[in-house]
Amino acid sequence: MIRHGAIDDDELRQLIVTGHIRYGGNRRLRIYGRLDCASGKRMRRSTRVFFGDEAAARAAGFRPCGHCLRAAFRRWKLEQAETS
Residues with Cβ < 8 Å from 12, sequence gap 6 or more? Predict the structure, then answer.
């Protein structure tokens, strides 16, 4: 997990272009999604974090976005219902 405030814009662009960053997340809400998600674009820089893959985001305790990752969100929601 990389905090947006801990990285400069040029380095961030380079990591996205090379594929090291594929998902963004909201640190406070514990939600991750695609970088082009409209919901994610509205996040504040201070709460935004980045992940290389979904497994890293899930391991950090984040859940999938219900807008841009609908199928993953549905699976996550079913998993939560089964464990309750």
Answer: 4, 21, 50
